[in-house]
Write a structure and sequence with these properties.
heterodimer; A: 110 residues; alpha+beta; three-stranded antiparallel β-sheet; globular; disordered N terminus; B: 876 residues; 30 helices; 55% helix
Chain lengths: 110, 876
């Protein structure tokens, strides 16, 4: 289950998954590993958070999952970003920048 | 994402649920595989790696549950799942479900039926425009409302008050008069109204014109409006009907207009004529027959109008002290006035049905609580498998709402059935309100009641049912006895049920006793074997009393000669059907100080043989006889109550009395028993009977006592009447027993339904008590087994369980008796008299309750006593 860290991620997990999938189609474990690596282990996305998010994103049409084979021949479900997903990521990114900027200004205000 | 795509995705996810679930399953398994491979790559043994991967996943079922929760449409999905599961659970316990659904169905059916009546009578506004401005006026004596208003007073109020757009009047009760217009005469129900009644109600004729003030000024009665129904049936809906002159009871009357279809007010009249300013109805201020209705001027409140009317009352009191000293007029809203008689009955039934529903709910809640305790292992298992507490809570609540909805469905079906009975039970048309129907708002009410009942019965059991700790509940093989909270809850429910049913039972017994008391024994006359009918005559040729007398006498003679007729006579007003009016009576030479202070008795004119015919006993003296003719001393027969009041301690026979509004004095020739002349005026009424012949007043009601079936006389009597004279006709041919039965039927229906409610409530309470005790015994089997094993005698256990049950019942009973007091106050307003003081009623109710609850307690107590200690101990 996702611990404290992923709870903090609540609104941003979707964005992180979308961003991760811009590189290449990945399966669930791959997404989780990639986020872990890129954030130096700050975000450790557990299956209990990951799969609900993946399925919700797929249902919304932003990513699409297809069954394929992993590099060592295992069957796995690979997710790739759709055109709608790309647009969505753009929106999320912009919202995030605005939010981050606003928080930064608030923190730096004297 | 466009809405359409979202919808499609929602539909897909709902429909493809199975496929998605399998997909997810596979995906999670592949995740475990991949992770295990990852771990093996870092040098961990395959077995170890797989196990660790699974542990990291944290339970496939939990993850799946979370994914399902986050899917779009998860709410609907869960609901459907809950409903499916709920149906399955309920289906697995058909006995439990049936009892619960039946209990709730009965409760909801009763409340829905009564609500539909309340809705149509009290909540839906009356069908006149701006009903808020319509008021009714009742005469008062010393501030106490006492019925209709005198015509002369009405005209004074109309002329002198300033608050009304129109102050109108109608003579209470319609008259049956013969209409001649063509070859076949017919009988019309004729209402007498003031010229402005329809204007006050804002109802205008659909053809012709309304009455005008000038019509009334001319003396009235020469013009008439007809109902839409009569216009269609009797005049073929012809436009030329307006302006036609017909013969109404011998007088020419011109039809000036047709009222709208469906219009009626207080009585179902076919024809309306104007109140006759010089006629015999309310010729003095001491006679009161007019129902007064007013439309307030815009902006005038009822209080202001009341002040205005009071001012007129004071002026009248000064002007006519003899009659109006204590008299007044009280205004109330027209709607309240129209439903005042059934209002109390409806409130009573409402309270009764609400209690039945509450008892039913308490019962089902008790059942659910007990079952919830048995289902604790299941709940624990589901919670261990990943169901959250809110999810379990929702599941349990869904089950109880399902139960209640099924009960509601049953209830609506039941209400529709009961509806037919209700239509007959209360005189809707006469009240001017629409008959109730199970539709629209009533269905909404039933739905709301079902949902409320579902939540009410499910809330506490759901809270308690989801308290289970998986470890505790799964750990122990046997169930731990329910804690003190649970047993207290159930005891409280049982006490409430017993209390509620004891209230209903007592009220029902009270009401039934008085209704039973209204039948033959207590009537003061014997309605069986009596045939009655009205002889109508029309035309001025019958105005001469001698002619009428000769005709009626010859009719009576022929009727008496019919085979099977033992006696026959005529009277002006039949008991129960026409109570008639109170007239003052006092010993000659000792008039009361004011006419309002006089002793009053109902006045009737009879022909000889009346008492024998209807079975009123002659206690002293003689009947009105053939020799009491005009010119002879005026004879009067008084009832026992009159005799005892006017001539206490001595025989009144031979004494002279004076009767208000008559000339000369009357000689008391006989004393007869008091009889119930009206159901609505309480007990048996004092009455006075005068000779129809001597008074020169027609007694047009035939009363015939037969030795066989009285109803079979109708044809023969009709033939005699027709054969005598073409101007005579026979109407309203019925037996007296039928008349009494019809008058009683509303009370009988109310008391029977109340009785049925009480019986259902008692049964439910007994089931509740039984369930609670049986459950208690089941819970304490081990304890009781141990007690038996260490030497307790089985009878002592029996007594313990019995005592526990009876104690609950006793507390409920005491609580119930405390509640009865306000309920009894409500019943006091009913037109039937109730003997609240009679201890036998309470004793009977207590006995019935005691017996039923004892039976309910005995079974579980018997089970407790029969516990086999060896078997119980071995099983543990």
């Amino acid at each position: 289950m996702g611990g404290q860290k992923s709870d903090l991620l609540h609104g941003t997990l979707d964005m992180l998954i979308l961003k991760t999938l811009t590189l290449e189609p990945m399966h669930g474990l791959g997404v989780s590993r990639r986020i872990q690596q890129v954030t130096d282990g700050v975000f450790d996305v557990q299956p209990g958070s990951l799969f609900p998010a993946l399925h919700r994103l797929e249902q919304d049409g932003w990513i699409r999952g297809t069954w394929g084979r992993s590099e060592n021949g295992r069957r796995a479900k690979y997710y790739r970003l759709t055109a709608a997903g790309v647009r969505r990521l753009g929106e999320e990114r912009q919202n995030w920048s605005q939010l981050a900027l606003a928080i930064a200004r608030l923190l730096e205000a004297t | 994402m466009p809405a359409l795509t979202r919808m499609a995705s929602l539909a897909r996810s709902l429909m493809r649920k199975g496929g998605l679930d399998r997909d997810l399953d596979e995906e999670l398994r592949s995740y475990v595989d991949l992770r295990a491979q990852e771990l093996m790559a870092s040098g961990i043994a395959p077995d170890q790696a797989r196990r660790q991967a699974k542990v990291e996943l944290g339970g496939i079922e939990q993850v799946k549950e979370r994914v399902r929760d986050r899917r779009r449409g998860a709410g609907i999905d869960t609901l459907l799942q809950d409903v499916r599961h709920g149906l399955r659970v309920l289906g697995k316990n058909p006995a439990f479900s049936l009892v619960a659904i039946l209990s709730l169905g009965i409760g909801i059916s009763a409340t829905t039926t009564v609500f539909s009546a309340v809705h149509s009578a009290l909540l839906r506004p009356i069908a006149f425009s701006e009903p808020d401005r319509l008021v009714a006026a009742q005469k008062t004596y010393d501030g106490v409302p006492s019925g209709p208003v005198s015509r002369l007073d009405y005209f004074d109020y109309r002329d002198q008050s300033r608050s009304f757009e129109h102050l109108a009047a109608a003579v209470g009760g319609s008259a049956q008069l013969t209409v001649r217009d063509g070859p076949e005469p017919w009988v019309a129900d004729v209402g007498m109204v003031s010229w402005n009644l329809f204007r006050a109600l804002k109802v205008t004729p659909v053809a012709g014109r309304d009455f005008l003030p000038a019509d009334e000024a001319q003396g009235g009665a020469a013009v008439a409006l007809v109902s839409y129904g009569v216009w269609q049936d009797r005049f073929g809906a012809s436009p030329t009907a307006v302006g036609r002159t017909v013969n109404l009871a011998g007088h020419p009357v011109t039809i000036i207009g047709v009222m709208p279809s469906g219009f009626h007010f207080l009585d179902n009249a076919d024809l309306w004529t104007l109140v006759d300013r010089t006629g015999p109805v309310d010729a003095t201020r001491d006679s009161h027959s007019h129902i007064v209705v007013g439309r307030l001027r815009p902006g005038v409140s009822v209080q202001q109008a009341q002040g205005d009317v009071d001012r007129v009352s004071r002026a009248l009191a000064t002007q006519y002290p003899a009659t109006n000293k204590a008299k007044g007029l009280r205004l109330i809203g027209l709607q309240a006035f129209m439903v005042q008689n059934i209002g109390t009955i409806l409130v009573l039934l409402g309270v009764a049905t609400a209690s039945v529903l509450l008892i039913a709910c308490a019962n089902v809640a008790g059942l659910l609580l007990a079952r919830g305790h048995r289902r604790m292992p299941e709940m624990a298992m589901r919670s261990a498998l990943g169901a959250s507490r809110p999810r379990l809570f929702r599941q349990l609540l869904t089950e109880s709402v399902l139960l209640a909805l099924a009960g509601g469905l049953l209830g609506v079906g039941g209400a529709r059935l009961v509806q037919a009975g209700l239509q007959r039970m209360l005189p809707w048309a006469e009240l001017g309100v629409a008959a109730p129907a199970v539709e629209g708002p009533v269905l909404l009410f039933a739905l709301a009641m079902s949902l409320a009942a579902g939540v009410a019965i499910g809330l506490v059991p759901a809270v308690r049912g989801t308290e289970a700790r998986p470890s505790a509940a799964l750990g122990s093989g046997r169930q731990a006895p329910d804690g003190p909270r649970g047993s207290r809850l159930r005891s409280g429910l049982v006490i409430a049920q017993v209390a509620g049913s004891s209230v209903l039972l007592t009220l029902a017994v009270l009401l039934m006793r008085s209704v039973v008391g209204l039948t033959a024994v207590d009537l003061g006359f014997e309605p069986d074997q009596v045939f009655t009918a009205r002889v109508l005559f029309s035309g001025p040729e019958y105005d001469a009393p001698e002619r009428r007398r000769a005709l009626f006498e010859s009719v009576l003679e022929d009727v008496k000669a019919l085979p099977g007729v033992t006696s026959a006579s005529m009277i002006s007003k039949l008991p129960i059907l026409n109570p008639g009016q109170d007239w003052g009576i006092w010993p000659a030479g000792r008039p009361p100080a004011a006419s309002g202070d006089a002793y009053h008795a109902l006045a009737r004119w009879v022909t000889p043989g009346y008492f024998k015919t209807v079975g009123i006993p002659i206690l002293e003296g003689r009947d009105i006889s053939e020799t009491d003719l005009p010119g002879a001393p005026q004879a009067i027969v008084i009832s026992k109550a009159v005799a005892e009041t006017l001539f206490p301690g001595r025989s009144p026979v031979g004494e002279l009395v004076t009767v208000w509004s008559t000339e000369g004095s009357f000689q008391v020739v006989g004393v007869v028993g008091d009889a119930r002349l009206s159901l609505l005026l309480g007990q048996r009424r004092p009455a006075m009977y005068m000779s129809s012949v001597q008074m020169g007043s027609p007694a047009t009601r035939l009363a015939i006592r037969a030795s066989g079936d009285p109803a079979q006389l109708a044809g023969a009597v009709r033939q005699i009447v027709r054969g005598k004279d073409s101007g005579l006709s026979l109407v309203d041919a019925r037996t007296l027993a039928v008349i009494v039965g019809e008058a009683l039927s509303p009370f009988r229906t109310v008391s029977v339904s109340l009785g049925a409610f009480a019986a259902v409530a008692l049964l439910l309470a007994a089931i509740g008590l039984y369930g609670t005790l049986a459950y208690h015994v089941g819970q304490h089997r081990l304890e009781m087994g141990v007690r038996l094993a260490v030497g307790a005698a089985p009878p002592s256990l029996l007594c313990r369980v019995l005592g526990r049950g009876l104690a609950l019942a006793a507390v409920g009973l005491i609580l119930g008796i405390v509640i009865i007091v306000p309920g009894a106050l409500l019943l006091r307003q009913l037109p039937v008299s109730l003997q609240f003081e009679s201890p036998s009623v309470y004793l009977g109710a207590i006995l019935a309750l005691g017996l039923t609850t004892s039976v309910a307690c005995l079974l579980p107590a018997w089970q407790a006593a029969r516990i086999d200690p060896i078997e119980v101990l071995r099983r543990q």
